[in-house]
Amino acid sequence: MAELTKSEARTQAFAARKRAYSQAHDATACAELSAFLASIGDFAVIAAYMPIRTEISPLPVMADLYEAGKIVCVPVIEAAGKPLRFSRWTPTTPLVNGPFGAKIPHTDAFVIPDVLITPLVAFDARGYRLGYGGGFYDRTFELLRQKGAALAVGFAYVAQQLPHVPTEPTDVRLDAIVTETGVKRF
């Protein structure tokens, strides 16, 4: 069987994600994500994301982390070919539309995260993720890891797992993936 191209893998994974999204597994997945974050020790700043389309929503976990005194931030795309920056978020932060339809804080207050909860289109058992194709997260993981430890955690439905995600030399492996069925560490 021939390996899928990234485009073919995205098409397959988007369909699987849409089916999983309709089955309302977000609460179970959020409970798994909360338990995982509690198990990794202390961290001060955590990045998550504002969900778009059929992405699994980390918003309940983000709100809980904020209430627990953590600094929560969300990604901001500044330009094509550049790493992401992360702006502080609270449950009451005024938001505006950012690139690709994701909401971003109206006023930037940039911070550097210790932990990054990342959306994805697909993932595999090796810990590789397939995103939307802009390379934003891969550039960001590489930059943050050069500056020190940054834990990269994918958040997805288990249905988004593929046997093999096509990779390139610039693709960065995640440290863990959290789904509604549990956590896979790499």
Please, what is the CATH homologous superfamily?
A: NagB/RpiA/CoA transferase-like
Helix content: 25-40%
- With strands numbered from the N-terminus, the spatial order across the biggest sheet is 6-3-2-1-7-10-11-12
Number of helices: 4
CATH first level: Alpha Beta
Give a quick summary of the entry:
By secondary structure, the protein is of the alpha/beta class. Helices cover 27% and strands 23% of the residues.
Structure description:
This protein has helices at 6-21, 26-39, 59-67, 136-147; strands at 45-47, 71-76, 85-89, 95-97, 103-105, 110-111, 115-118, 122-123, 129-130, 151-155, 176-179, 182-185. With 186 residues, it is of the alpha/beta class. It has a single domain (6-185), classed as Rossmann fold (3-Layer(aba) Sandwich). The strands form three sheets. An eight-stranded mixed sheet has the order 6-3-2-1-7-10-11-12, sandwiched between helices. The chain has a two-stranded antiparallel ribbon with strand order 4-5. It has a two-stranded antiparallel ribbon with strand order 8-9. Strand 2 (71-76) and strand 3 (85-89) form a beta hairpin. It is globular and about 45 Å long. It starts with 5 loop residues before the first helix and ends with a strand. The mean pLDDT is 94.
